[in-house]
Amino acid sequence: MSVPEDWARAYARQADADFRAWDIYQQHPKAVSAECHKLLFLQMACEKLCKAHLIRKGSLPTSLQASHGYIAKPLPVIIKQEISLRNRKLKNAAWLARHVAHLSQEIELLNPAVQRAGHRPDNCEYPWESADKVMSPLDHSFAIPRLVVAPAGRTFLKLVRSAIDRNI
Amino acid sequence: MSKDEEAIDLAQRHYEVDIGLTVVIRFTNSPELEQDATEPIKLLEVNEHTIESGVLPIHFGPAPESGIHYPSVIVEVTPEEFDRIRSNELRLPDGWRFPLPIPKSAVAAKP
Questions:
Q1: SS3 of A45, please?
Q2: Predicted-complex ipTM score
Q3: Whole-prediction pTM value?
């Protein structure tokens, strides 16, 4: 009989694999055909990390598996805990926490199922319509690549990496 | 540190990290259950900068290398959701029985 801990660790391992794929593509941009594919791995890694933390407290894996929109709320809390566990070594923690909230919302929006009531149909998987034109993720200029190369973004990625490691 | 002291320490660390945090309330279960090392530290955190999503308990394992020897569960809510919890419109998880507010300490309030 499986227990929540088994499911949580399995989700964390998937998050680890997804994050490694993102990281490899970061290091070798030409290995991936488009930016949106790379972002897909980051979005999936963050979503599975968040679900691992939710499953440990009793959320049903079956109900979470096909559901989306589980990044913008839990990820800042997960990162806050990660900073807290090392805050005596991390400068500007409060400034970082503000950026994390914004990054988390943008990462959640990469999922096509999350559209903020139709206001943000842009996503990294499927084409969408905007101002009577069909837009493709292949041509879209996403905010995330710019945000993660800023100092707060680089620290955010390290903290996501560290939070995944803590769950495996 | 005792479990009570670690709960206060964890809350203070969160206050230091997140300037949107206005209230932290620790909830305990029965004294007998709280003796169990696997019973988590339970913190309700009211954050001006978070988004509404109801009561979403997020579980963390112990981190002894960082001085936290107990698991913890964080429920973060907006001030409006906090009002709905107080008026029993929103329910906290089972076992969140006895509230104890943890104010921001003078040390944590420093810039």
A1: helix
A2: 0.89
A3: 0.91
Q: Which two tokens stand for residue A70?
A: 């589980």
Nearest residue of B to residue A59, measured between CA atoms: B57
Q: Give the whole-angstrom CA distance, residue A7 versus residue A48.
A: 11
CB-based contact (8 Å) between B73 and chain A? yes
CB-CB contact of A160 with A45 (8 Å): yes
| In the block, residue with structure tokens 């566990």 | A85
Residues of chain A with pLDDT under 70: 66, 87-89
Distances (CA, A) of A161 to A9, A46, B74, B98, B102: 15, 10, 20, 35, 30
- Residue B18 has its nearest CB partner, among A72, A97, A105, at A97
Q: Name the more confident of B48 and B108.
A: B48
Q: Residue B27: in which H helix or E strand, if any?
A: strand B21-28
> In the prediction, which pLDDT does B108 show?
46
Please tell me if residue B109 touches chain A, with a CB cutoff of 8 Å. Answer: no
Chain B residues within an 8 Å CB radius of A77: 45, 58, 74, 76
How does pLDDT run across A87-106, given as a tens digit for each residue?
566 778 878 888 999 999 99
Residues of A with CB under 8 A from a CB of B: 8, 53-54, 56-58, 72-74, 76-78, 80-81, 83-87, 93-94, 97-98, 101, 105, 166-167
